[in-house]
Design a protein that fits this description.
Layout: E1 10-16, H1 20-31, E2 39-43, H2 52-55, E3 59-60, H3 67-81, H4 83-87, E4 102-106, H5 109-124, E5 129-132, H6 134-140, E6 151-155, E7 160-161, H7 164-177, E8 181-184, E9 187-192, E10 199-204, E11 209-217, H8 223-229, E12 236-248, E13 258-260, E14 266-269, E15 274-280, H9 296-310, E16 317-330, E17 337-340, E18 347-351, H10 357-374, H11 388-391
Parallel strand pairs: 1-2, 1-11, 2-8, 4-13, 11-18
Antiparallel strand pairs: 3-7, 4-6, 5-6, 9-10, 10-11, 12-15, 12-16, 13-14, 14-15, 17-18
Helix pairs in contact: 1-7, 1-10, 3-10
The structure holds flavin-adenine dinucleotide.
């Protein structure tokens, strides 16, 4: 368990939130030869029990409509597959991606056209997305009922499950071993300079006041609360997402792709004989930070009938375990918000990752570390996802959202 009080009064970088985004940033800072500063990571719950990272479904995909989102996931794939070499530690277990792909199913021509347009962007970016007719789907995946399906879209390259928990653990462990200080405490206030253009310090729940050169908001679903401490409005709110792990009386004899049913329910292979399903709450309002209550009717009346209709072999299935987690839902355009505030220059966002933050954590952490060190993104230009698009009211609409 990390200690409570910071060992210094001043740090070059203070990161608010130590889950996957905060830890990725901290670790990538330690990778940069040009960065020699001090880093404090403040985490209000060092058990990480309730953060989005702990509730994730841990998949990655290349099927986005925005090519930057594709490049971000491609970096994730390369980083994860070479985790041991990247961390530079023989104790790191070998990693791989379970490439069963995401199977998007369209039951009308409108969505089929979107899949066709997306495929062009994905192929141009180096993905291997295939479009399948209902007959082709049946030939490869005979277990689906496809009477209502117009088109399917799947990519089997670097798309599927990966072990986000292990990557998170090693970033945190390695960052600490390299001198990043983690504390078990909470940022409860932020103080700016007289003309409001810079953050001077953060105040912790323990009463400690810590001066900082730059501050990173990696607070997940609490991102808007952290921004509000600095007088900044951030359109990010906690939205509930349910997950069920289930077993089937008659398991499939091949891996089940992460299937995005036209109803919005998704399901995929989990263990060798277990499966995972997920869906949003309905209605889907912002919820309290500590509200993780399950809606037990959702499975019985909504999810299970949809799964059993799409995969008749799954008529007899049984829930093994279930949980509710929170997306840090960006109500503006559901894309990431990364980089500095337009007026408070040393306040850096790492927010609003909705349902794709786990796979974005390598590129976002690397990019944020570059920004903190050089004042620019160097490897992959993430400026398209800057806060200034909110000020200009220019949303970036990602058409492939789950
Ligand atoms: C059900 C579900 C399924 C998902 N599936 C996928 C998937 O398949 N693929 C994918 O890429 N992504 C997925 N995601 C999204 C992904 O899990 C998140 O985007 C990612 O984990 C966000 O990480 P984070 O570090 O930004 O936030 P979090 O993990 O929520 O961490 C934020 C941390 O900040 C701390 N904190 C907040 N405020 C303060 C404060 N004031 N002081 C100190 N600490 C503070 C919190 O305690 C927390 O530990 C899923 C999410 C959910 C909920």
């Amino acid at each position: 368990m990390p200690h409570k009080n910071p060992t210094a009064r001043s740090y070059d970088i203070v990161i608010i939130g130590g889950a996957i985004m905060g830890s990725s940033t901290a670790w990538f800072l330690t990778e940069l030869d040009d960065f020699n500063g001090s880093v404090l990571v403040v985490e209000r719950d060092s058990s990480y029990e309730k953060c989005s990272t702990a509730h994730t479904n841990s998949c990655m995909r290349q099927q986005f409509s925005n090519s930057l989102n594709i490049e971000i996931s491609q970096f994730a794939a390369e980083f994860v597959k070479n985790l041991r070499a990247n961390i530079g530690d023989d104790r790191v277990p070998e990693q791989h991606i379970q490439n069963y792909g995401y199977m998007y199913l369209a039951d009308d021509e409108g969505f089929a056209d979107t899949l066709r347009e997306n495929q062009k962007i994905q192929l141009a970016a180096g993905a291997e997305t295939e479009l399948l007719s209902a007959e082709e789907i049946t030939a490869r995946y005979p277990f689906y009922a496809v009477d209502d399906i117009v088109l399917g879209s799947i990519n089997l390259k670097d798309e599927g499950y990966w072990d986000g928990g292990t990557v998170f653990d090693w970033w945190r462990r390695s960052a600490r071993e390299r001198g990043v200080e983690y504390i078990d405490n909470e940022v409860v206030a932020i103080t700016k300079n007289a003309n409001g253009t810079r953050v001077d310090s953060v105040t912790l729940a323990s009463g400690d006041v810590v001066s900082c050169g730059q501050v990173v908001n990696a607070s997940g679903p609490r991102g808007a609360r952290t921004a509000a401490f600095a007088g900044i409005e951030l359109p990010v709110e906690p939205r509930k997402r349910f997950t069920w792990i289930f077993s089937a009386e008659q398991p499939l004899d091949q891996d089940l792709p992460l299937t995005i049913d036209p109803s919005g329910v998704h399901f995929r292979q989990d263990g060798p004989k277990t499966y995972l399903a997920g869906c949003p709450a309905d209605p889907d309002p912002a919820v309290d930070f500590d509200d993780f209550a399950m809606d037990f009717n959702r499975w019985e009346n909504h999810v299970w009938p949809i799964i059993a209709t799409r995969i008749p072999q799954f008529e007899a299935i049984k829930v093994v375990t279930e949980w509710a987690g929170h997306y840090a839902f960006n109500t503006f355009d559901q894309n990431a918000i990364v980089g500095p505030h337009d007026q408070i220059e040393n306040f850096i966002f790492l927010n609003g990752f909705s349902g794709h933050g786990l796979q974005q954590s390598p590129a976002m952490g690397r990019g944020t570390a570059e920004w903190l060190t050089y004042g620019e993104f160097r490897s992959l230009d993430l400026s398209q996802f800057g806060y200034d698009r909110l000020v200009r009211n220019e949303p970036i609409i990602e058409k492939a959202i789950i």
